[in-house]
Amino acid sequence: MFFFRMIFRSFSRQFKRRLLIAVTVCLSATVSVAMLGVVFDVGDKLNAELSTYGSNITVQPKADAVVNDLYNTGGDANSNASGTSESDPTTFLKESDAPKIKTIFWAFNITNFAPELNIHADVNCASESVDSSSCKASGVPIVGTWFAKTLHMDSGESTVAGMNGMRSWWKLDGSWPKDDSAQGLIGTTLASKLGVGKGDTVTLYKTTADGSRNKQRIAITGIYDSGDSDNNAMYIPSSTAQVLANLPDSIDKIEVKALTTPDNDLARKASKNPNALTQDEWETWYCTAYPSSIAYQIEEVIPGSVAKQVRQVAALQGDVLQKTQAVMVLMTVLSLVAAAIAVANLMAASIGERGSELALLKAIGATDGAVSRLMLAETAVISLVGAIVGALLGSGVAQIVGHVVFGSGITMRPMVFVLVFVLLTLTVLIASFSSIRSILGLKPAEVLHGR
Questions:
Q1: Strands (E), 134-176
Q2: pLDDT for residue 10
Q3: Beta-sheet pairing, 149-152 with 158-161
Q4: Which of 32, 58, 91, 358 has its CA 20 to 30 A from that of 347?
Q5: Which of 378, 363, 370, 352 is nearest to 435 (CA)?
């Protein structure tokens, strides 16, 4: 009881100084909890944010991948919509195999995907409101794809895949076409060239491999602005493009958007040659959501395919994530250092003012250990109160950061609070070390006699 009475009396005196210690610890806890909370959750947030700007994995026929590697084209050899090729594809994947992407080990990390059939066709206007004599274009890039296709998996689950989610940055004047319909989107550049708008109808003409001339009327439901050369193209349902080109169940590319873990040395080693991994390395790599491991698993379920990560997107995700985490960890460290300096100075000042009290305790028989424990217990109680308040405030600050920066809340993991309390305990102990040394050096006779 004597021990606790001394703590209470000590707390009653020098209230201002003790309040400053509590506030210092509270601020440090607030910053630490907020920053570390974001650090532990920022990976998925950044990946989700960056993935809104396109796919990070592309799947194509193996023959096309060989051509890309041979000529170092760095992309799909038949990426007509981007204007890199004027020829139609000659090798294909099966569109019916595309849903198998959602059956891999990391299926829940696949947030969206869209198959594509990239072809070229001649375009004539078929609207009374447009002069058909001047509304003509040859070799227009046509992309047959999904827009918002509902897939029913063998597991009983359903998912929606398509360009509606893959091209969220597009500026769209109008509405998205319906899948398996005679509707389409047209880019702003092509629309301006043809003089058509939403609500108009155009006719596509395509000479197939067997020499026949197919045609298809397309109702324009919207005009999109992608901000790049993709504005020269038209997007129509894949089933319609396949009929037009006489290529049933054929696609030449699949864009995949996946939540991934940034590459490290193991992932880079595996991307060069997975067979070079040891058994332990293989299991670690295969069971981690690296872009290369997800791509490898896609190749396993889609026959004749090669899946590759889009290096620029993957590198950007990893680089931004590491820099963001580094800044937040640095802020946490600086807050802890500032707290340590502040607590050390406040404790030193407190001991200087209470020298006579502490000397009297030692004079009546208190050991150095008992006096040191008294000061540590007092500081611990004050710091604990500050840490608890700071943890609550830090959780609120983390949510504000999440909503302002990422548009969603931060998931606060229990490990964050455990780590912060451990770091604060070490900080307070380190800050108290110099003060404890001064207590051990107190000589009761000299202090009580004013020397």
A1: 136-145, 149-152, 158-161, 171-174
A2: 52
A3: antiparallel
A4: 32
A5: 352
Residue 227: HSE in the Cβ half-sphere, 13 Å Cα cutoff = 7
Q: Which residues contact 19 (CB under 8 A, 6 or more apart)?
A: none
pLDDT by residue (tens digit) across 255-282? 998 888 777 888 888 888 888 889 999 9
Q: Which residue has the tokens 């696609």?
A: 251
Q: Which residues pair with 46 in a beta bridge?
A: none
- Chain centroid to Cα 129, Å, comes to 46
Exposed e or buried b per residue across 234-256, where buried means at least 16 C-beta atoms within 10 angstroms of its C-beta: bbbbbbbbbbbbebeebbbbbbb
396-410 burial: b if 16+ Cβ within 10 Å, else e: ebbbebbeeebeeeb
Termini Cα distance of the chain: 32
CA 136 to chain centre: 43
pTM over 0.70? The answer is: no
* 3 state SS of 309: strand
- Each as own residue / partner, the long-range contacts of residues 161-164 (CB below 8 Å, 24 or more positions apart, any chain) are 161/98, 161/99, 161/112, 161/113, 161/114, 162/112, 162/114, 163/114, 163/235
Query: Who has greater pLDDT, 61 or 319?
Result: 61
**Torsion of the alpha carbons at 34, 40, 43 and 46, rounded to the nearest 10:** -10
Task: Give the per-residue pLDDT at 240.
Answer: 95
Q: Which tokens hold the place of 32? A: 């630490």
Distance CA 52, CA 45 (A): 11
pLDDT in tens, 17-60: 777 878 888 888 888 888 888 877 766 666 655 555 567 889 99
Distance in angstroms (rounded) separating the CA atoms of residues 34 and 12? 32
Other Cβ atoms less than 10 A from the Cβ of 372: the count is 18
Q: 173: which residues sit within 8 A by CB, 6+ positions away?
A: 198, 222, 223, 224, 225
Give alpha helix (H) positions in 121-263.
Answer: 163-166, 188-194, 238-245
Segment 126-181, tens digit of pLDDT: 654 555 556 788 899 999 999 999 998 877 788 999 998 888 889 999 999 999 99
H or E element at residue 111: strand 110-125
Structure confidence at residue 412 (pLDDT)? 85
Residues 6+ apart with CB under 8 A from 282: 270, 274
